[in-house]
Amino acid sequence: MMDLHRKRTPTWIIRPFHPDDTPAVTDLWQICQLVVPANDPRRDMIAKTAFQPDLFLVGIWEGALVASVMAGYEGHRGWINYLAVAPAHRRHGLGRAMLAAAEERLGRLGCPKINLQVRRHNRAVLEFYRRLGYVEDEVISLGKRLR
Prior knowledge:
A hairpin with a 4-residue loop joins strand 3 and strand 4. It is built from four helices and five strands; from the N terminus they run βααβββαβα. It is of the alpha+beta class.
């Protein structure tokens, strides 16, 4: 006899990004306030799918795209970008799962260290990464826009 009171475990999968995901990922990044005027999310997705597309992952919860992470490795350091979880799906371990999937893939490539950048005002995200073992490096991040 089937137990009707038994909770069903939600369906959660992590898979590589597919170009059909572009609208949902763009919406996710905007909702999570990851898009700034200098970034064109569609251009970033096109560039990533041209280089190491297997390191661009999305999280699907009950059929809906609710998480993403874009990782990269150039032979010296790994990088994490665009780690996002839809606000309604936070605090369920999805961000941790997405990060773990990216770390596992980077580790298989021989990556010895992962870097990431967090905007100074984003205290909640800083605490998230600290809880997962990330520490502040004694470096200053510099950047130069080429376009």
